[in-house]
Task: inverse folding
């Protein structure tokens, strides 16, 4: 099958590496408004009862932090709507591609947009959709908020990502794995700090 006609989930590791290499870019002030615009589109399409809470996560949500430039969003949905076909169809009308994400706790819904197989540069989006009971994902809010409050830790994270991106330009798995220990350490620190202030 021609790679242009493949779904994202059908791409081989080698095809993904060639099509979407890891490239870090400086922080863009527009990322906040890009998120807000997309959030509004999704809220209109799904309704507040379905998309209960929409959060901007990932490096584009942290002011001043270099990033790959994709907008990561985390959406809380009612448990009974996980893998609901009407949600999948609604997101597809917004040009999102759907797949089931595994390997990060319970399986959940993930949607991606802007990953053009022909090489056209587009704004990329990843939407992670799961109930808040999925703590492996929703703990990312602790990490995000801690980096927003501690610019020195954010800079340390940025340096790590730049180093990993240089080393693993075409190896997303190794890039992600290289961040894991740092993210887990800071997330746990942030959670403990939050509990201490309650």
Result:
């Amino acid at each position: 099958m021609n790679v242009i006609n493949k779904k994202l989930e059908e791409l081989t590791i080698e095809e993904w590496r060639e099509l979407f290499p890891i490239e870090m870019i400086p922080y863009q002030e527009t990322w906040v408004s890009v998120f807000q615009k997309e959030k509004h589109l999704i809220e209109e399409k799904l309704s507040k009862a379905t998309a209960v809470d929409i959060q901007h996560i990932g490096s584009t949500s942290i002011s001043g932090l270099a990033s790959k430039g994709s907008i990561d969003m985390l959406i809380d949905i009612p448990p009974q709507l996980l893998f609901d076909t009407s949600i999948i169809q609604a997101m597809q009308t917004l040009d999102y591609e759907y797949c089931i994400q595994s390997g990060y706790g319970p399986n959940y819904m993930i949607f991606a947009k802007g990953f053009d197989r022909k090489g056209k540069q587009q704004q990329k989006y990843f939407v992670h959709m799961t109930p808040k009971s999925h703590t492996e994902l929703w703990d990312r809010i602790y990490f995000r908020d801690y980096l927003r409050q501690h610019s020195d830790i954010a800079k340390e994270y940025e340096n790590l990502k730049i180093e990993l991106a240089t080393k693993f330009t075409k190896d997303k798995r190794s890039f992600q794995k290289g961040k894991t220990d740092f993210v887990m350490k800071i997330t746990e620190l942030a959670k403990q700090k939050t509990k201490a202030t309650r």
About this structure: The chain has one domain: 3-196. The chain has a mean pLDDT of 92. The radius of gyration is 17 Å. The longest strand covers residues 71-76.
